[in-house]
Amino acid sequence: MQEASRSARLAPTTEHCLRMQKAITCLYKRPNASTRLIFFPWAGGGSIFFANWGRWFDESIEVYSVMLAGRESRSRESFAQNIDQIVDEVCEFLLPLLHEKSLAFFGHSFGSLTSFATAVRLKEKYGVEPIHLFVSGISAPHSELRLHTDKKSEKTDEDLLCWLSTAGGTPTAILQNKEALKMFIPAMKADLRIVESFMYEKPDGQVLSCGLTCFDGNEDTPHDLEAWKDLTSGDFSIHKFPGAHFYLKDPENQKQLVAYVTKYLESYQISYF
């Protein structure tokens, strides 16, 4: 009886669903899905890239993509000043969904840190966590390697654009469009400042119990992926793909990522339910 009452309180209201649509994008509804896969964007990124991945997953997985303040339909809102602001907002929208279906997180670069911080908050404050955390393109939050990374948020716009052109992943049309850059660069620098200010000490024990998978491009700047293993007691693996920082924009890599994530999540459902 108590559980039923709790579920009723947590059930998403119409008002909540309408507000959630402003911050979390779902382009391909899967009402019969057993798992909701939540994507967290890279620095400066919007929600559409990952939201479009929803068409490649089968009926067992429904894809949601986080839309951060200051971009897309939220372009008039102020950027988040720290990672806690992002985590608070995402948790607010996810909590009513937790009793319905399993959740899994996937983050790339900056999104790996925000997805991890969200998973930790859910577990520490609410006693729940995603069934799996897929992280990509960044060292573990407590890794010393992060301390020696250049502060890209302090680069001039010109130097930042030069770095973006070598990192790949940013369409040439955007890099050559002054109006588009006026919106893109501030969002990216705001996110980069959060990445660079986010300090996380190595915990005494694992803070998560879910499985954790690391993805990376084999031509990207070296990342301390092994350190992610310190953060969970669940299963752990590392997989590398051809390409640099935005390896996941390559169609073949996308196909393999979707296949891997689908197989893992469907296997989890079979094993635990």
TrEMBL record:
Domain Thioesterase: 36-259
Alphabetical UniProt keywords: Fatty acid biosynthesis, Fatty acid metabolism, Hydrolase, Lipid biosynthesis, Lipid metabolism
Source organism superkingdom: Eukaryota
PANTHER family in the record: S-ACYL FATTY ACID SYNTHASE THIOESTERASE, MEDIUM CHAIN, THIOESTERASE
Catalysed conversion reaction: (9Z)-octadecenoyl-[ACP] + H2O = (9Z)-octadecenoate + holo-[ACP] + H(+)
Stored Pfam families: Thioesterase
Family: Belongs to the thioesterase family.
A single MF term (Gene Ontology): fatty acyl-[ACP] hydrolase activity
EC numbers for this chain: 3.1.2.14
GO term, biological process aspect, one: medium-chain fatty acid biosynthetic process
Listed name of the protein: S-acyl fatty acid synthase thioesterase, medium chain
InterPro entries in UniProt: AB_hydrolase_fold, TEII, Thioesterase
